[in-house]
Backbone:
C-alpha cells in the first residue's frame, strides 16, 4: 500500500492530458459535424431538417453514459470485434458534441433577423452566398459564448469515460484510490483539478457573453 | 443470409453476423420497468431536494452576511465546474473518512440533490434579477407592507421567468441519474448493465434503455409543461 | 411598354385580403408615390414587385419579364430591381464600403476592383464618400439610410423601390434622405415609393396612388389627386396627414 504523494499526484496530472485530449478531439470533431447539422436544421430540405432534428433530440435526450455503452459494448457485439476504448470514447463524444453544438449553432443562425436574409437576397446573393457573407459571420459572434460554455460541459462529461475503464482523470483517481486507499484526499484533488480546468473556461464564457451582448447593440437600423 | 454472396465472391466476409434478438429484452420487461421507476424516483427526490436547497441558498445569497454569501457562491461554482461523477465519488468514498458512511441510494439522492441545487441556485438567482424593478417599486408604492405579500410578488415572478430553464435542468438531472450506476445504486442503467452482461445482448439492451430514457425525458418535459400551464396560465392574469 | 405592369393582382394573408384586384402601370422614368393608411397593402405591393412576396393571382411583369417563383428568375430580378427598406437593414459586421460592394461583387460576380468603383460612385451619389471605412453602427439614421440607398444603386438597377424609408427617422434627419431622392428623380430614374412625405410627392412624383383597404382608390398626377380628390377616403386621409 502506498500513501498519496508526489508521484501519485503526477500520475493524476498525466491523466489530465487524456481528459484534455479527448475533450479537444471531440470538440473539434463536434464543431465540424455540428456545423453540418446546423445547416441541415435551418436548410430548405424537409428531410434533412427532420433527420438533423432527430439526431439532436436523441443525443440530448439520452444519457451520455448509455451513448458510451452503445459505442463501446454495443457496437463491439454488433460487429463482433473489440473496439479500443479510445476509439469508442472519441467517436461517442464527437457525436455528442456535434448534437449540442449543432443546436447552439442553429439557435445562433435563427437569431439573425429575417430582414438580413431579405436584404442579402435583394442584392442578388444566392443561398450559400447569403450564408457565407451575411448570416454566418453574424451568427458566429452570437455562437461563441455558448460554444465555450459547452466546452466546460464536455470536459465534465468526459469523466464518464472512467466507467468503461478509459484512463482519464477520474479513472486515474479510482486507480490511485485502489492503490493508496485514501479516497478522502484523492477525489477532492481530482475535483480540484477539474475545477482548475473548467472554472477559467466558465469565466471566459461569461466574459464573452458580456462583451458580445454589449456589441449586439450594433443592429441594423431599428 | 449472406450465403449466396459468399459463394459468388469468396473474399466477401460479412462483418455483421449478429442477429438481433429484442425478444430477450422483452423477457426482462419487469426489471427494466423497475429500473425506470427507480430512475424517476431518484430524479424526483433529487429535484425536490435540490429545489428546496436552492431556494434556501438563493435567499442566503441575497440576504445573508458576507461569508455566507461567499460560501454559497463557492458552492455553486464548485458544482458547476466539477463532474457529477466525481461529486458522487466524494460523497460515497471520501465522506466515510469523516465518519459519514452512506448507502449507495442515499449517496445517490444526496448527490443528485446537491448537484441540482447548485444549478438551480444560479437559475433562481438570474430569475430574481430579471424581475422588472417596476413591479417591486409599484408594490412598495402601494404600501404592501406585509413582507409575505411582497416576497410573493418577487418569488412568483422569478419562478415564472426561470421555469423553462429549471424544467430543462430537471431533464438533465434525469439523464444524469444514470451516472449513479457507477456506485451501484439501483436505477435503469445499472439494471441494464447487469442484464446485458447476463445475456450478452449488449446492443439490444442499451438501445432499449436509451429509448426508455428518451421516453422518460419527453414525458417529463410534457408533465412539467402542463404544470406550468396549471400554475401560471389557467385562470390567472399575467 | 411599361417598365412595371400589374394586372389583377390579388393576395391574402390567411383570411385577410391584402391586395384586391390591383392594376398598375409604371413607365420608364416615372416617379410613383403610393400613399395610404398603414395596413392598406402598400408595402405588400412593393414586396410583390420585388419577388419578396408572391401573389395569389394576377400577373406582375418587370422590364418585360414576369415575376415568377423560380430562384434563378428571382436572382435576375434582384439585379434589375433595387429596394430600400424602412429599417435600412445594413449588414452590421461590414464597413460601409463593403456593405455597398457586396452586391456587385458576390451578387453580380464582378471583380473586386470594379465592385469597389461601383460602390464608391454609389456612395458619392448619396454624398457619403467620407464614411467608407466606418461601420453602420457609428452612423446616424439618415446616413445609414443613405448607405442603404447606395447599396441599391450599386447594383445599377432599372427600377428602385422605397418602402417608407423616412418613417423611422428623426424629423431632422429626413431632409438629407429626401434630398437624395429628389436628385435621383431628377436623373430620370424609375422609382416607386411608399411614403408619407407629401411634400416630396407633390414636387417630384409623376403619379400618386392612393391605396385603401387593399385596393387602389385613386391614381393620377399630384395636382389631380391632391387638390381634386374624388373620394371621401382620400380626403379624410389627406386632412389627417396634413394636420400633422
Residues:
Amino acid at each position: 500500500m502506498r500513501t498519496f504523494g508526489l508521484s501519485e499526484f503526477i500520475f493524476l496530472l498525466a491523466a489530465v492530458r487524456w481528459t484534455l485530449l479527448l475533450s479537444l478531439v471531440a470538440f473539434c470533431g463536434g464543431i465540424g459535424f455540428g456545423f453540418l447539422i446546423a445547416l441541415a436544421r435551418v436548410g430548405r430540405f424537409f428531410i434533412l431538417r427532420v433527420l438533423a432534428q432527430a439526431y439532436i433530440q436523441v443525443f440530448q435526450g439520452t444519457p451520455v453514459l448509455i451513448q458510451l455503452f452503445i459505442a463501446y459494448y454495443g457496437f463491439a457485439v454488433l460487429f463482433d470485434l473489440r473496439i479500443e476504448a479510445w476509439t469508442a470514447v472519441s467517436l461517442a463524444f464527437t457525436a455528442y458534441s456535434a448534437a449540442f453544438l449543432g443546436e447552439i449553432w442553429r439557435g445562433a443562425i435563427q437569431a439573425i433577423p429575417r430582414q438580413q436574409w431579405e436584404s442579402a437576397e435583394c442584392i442578388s446573393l444566392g443561398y450559400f452566398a447569403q450564408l457565407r457573407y451575411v448570416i454566418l459571420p453574424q451568427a458566429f459572434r452570437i455562437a461563441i459564448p455558448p460554444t465555450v460554455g459547452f466546452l466546460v460541459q464536455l470536459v465534465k462529461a468526459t469523466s464518464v469515460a472512467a466507467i468503461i475503464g478509459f484512463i482519464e482523470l477520474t479513472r486515474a483517481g479510482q486507480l490511485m484510490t485502489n492503490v493508496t486507499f485514501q479516497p478522502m484526499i484523492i477525489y477532492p484533488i481530482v475535483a480540484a483539478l477539474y475545477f482548475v480546468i473548467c472554472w477559467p473556461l466558465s469565466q471566459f464564457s461569461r466574459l464573452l457573453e458580456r462583451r458580445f451582448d454589449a456589441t449586439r447593440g450594433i443592429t441594423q437600423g431599428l | 443470409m449472406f450465403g449466396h454472396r459468399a459463394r459468388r465472391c469468396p473474399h466477401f466476409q460479412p462483418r455483421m453476423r449478429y442477429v438481433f434478438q429484442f425478444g430477450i429484452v422483452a423477457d426482462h420487461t419487469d426489471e427494466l420497468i423497475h429500473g425506470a421507476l427507480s430512475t424517476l424516483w431518484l430524479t424526483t427526490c433529487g429535484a425536490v431536494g435540490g429545489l428546496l436547497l436552492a431556494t434556501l441558498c438563493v435567499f442566503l445569497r441575497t440576504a445573508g452576511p458576507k461569508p455566507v454569501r461567499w460560501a454559497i457562491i463557492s458552492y455553486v461554482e464548485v458544482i458547476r465546474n466539477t463532474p457529477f461523477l466525481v461529486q458522487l465519488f466524494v460523497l460515497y468514498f471520501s465522506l466515510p473518512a469523516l465518519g459519514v458512511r452512506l448507502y449507495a441510494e442515499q449517496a445517490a439522492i444526496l448527490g443528485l440533490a446537491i448537484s441540482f441545487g447548485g444549478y438551480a441556485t444560479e437559475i433562481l438567482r438570474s430569475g430574481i434579477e430579471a424581475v422588472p424593478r417596476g413591479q417591486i417599486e409599484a408594490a412598495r408604492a402601494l404600501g404592501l407592507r406585509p413582507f409575505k405579500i411582497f416576497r410573493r410578488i418577487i418569488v412568483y415572478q422569478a419562478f415564472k421567468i426561470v421555469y423553462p430553464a429549471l424544467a430543462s435542468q430537471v431533464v438533465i438531472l434525469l439523464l444524469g441519474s444514470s451516472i449513479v450506476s457507477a456506485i451501484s445504486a439501483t436505477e435503469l442503467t445499472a439494471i441494464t448493465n447487469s442484464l446485458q452482461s447476463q445475456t450478452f445482448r449488449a446492443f439490444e439492451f442499451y438501445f432499449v434503455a436509451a429509448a426508455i430514457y428518451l421516453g422518460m425525458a419527453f414525458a417529463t418535459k410534457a408533465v412539467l409543461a402542463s404544470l406550468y400551464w396549471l400554475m401560471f396560465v389557467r385562470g390567472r392574469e399575467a | 411598354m411599361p417598365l412595371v405592369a400589374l394586372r389583377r393582382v390579388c393576395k391574402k394573408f390567411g383570411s385577410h385580403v391584402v391586395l384586391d384586384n390591383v392594376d398598375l402601370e409604371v413607365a420608364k422614368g416615372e416617379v410613383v408615390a403610393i400613399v395610404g393608411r398603414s395596413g392598406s397593402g402598400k408595402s405588400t405591393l412593393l414586396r410583390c414587385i420585388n419577388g419578396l412576396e408572391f401573389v395569389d393571382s394576377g400577373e406582375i411583369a418587370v422590364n418585360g419579364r414576369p415575376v415568377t417563383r423560380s430562384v434563378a428568375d428571382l436572382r435576375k430580378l434582384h439585379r434589375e430591381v433595387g429596394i430600400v427598406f424602412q429599417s435600412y437593414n445594413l449588414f452590421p459586421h461590414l464597413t460601409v464600403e463593403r456593405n455597398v460592394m457586396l452586391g456587385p461583387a458576390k451578387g453580380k460576380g464582378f471583380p473586386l476592383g470594379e465592385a469597389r468603383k461601383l460602390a464608391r460612385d454609389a456612395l458619392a451619389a448619396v454624398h457619403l464618400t467620407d464614411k467608407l471605412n466606418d461601420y453602420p453602427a457609428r452612423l446616424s439614421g439618415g446616413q445609414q439610410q443613405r448607405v442603404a440607398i447606395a447599396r441599391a444603386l450599386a447594383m445599377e438597377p432599372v427600377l428602385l423601390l422605397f418602402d417608407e424609408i423616412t418613417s423611422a427617422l428623426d424629423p431632422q434627419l429626413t431632409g438629407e434622405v429626401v434630398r437624395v431622392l429628389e436628385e435621383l428623380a431628377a436623373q430620370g430614374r424609375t422609382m416607386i415609393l411608399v411614403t408619407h412625405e407629401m411634400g416630396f410627392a407633390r414636387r417630384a412624383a409623376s403619379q400618386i396612388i392612393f391605396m385603401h383597404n387593399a385596393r387602389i382608390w385613386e391614381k393620377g398626377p399630384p395636382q389631380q389627386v391632391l387638390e381634386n380628390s374624388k373620394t371621401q377616403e382620400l380626403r379624410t386621409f389627406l386632412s389627417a396627414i396634413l394636420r400633422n
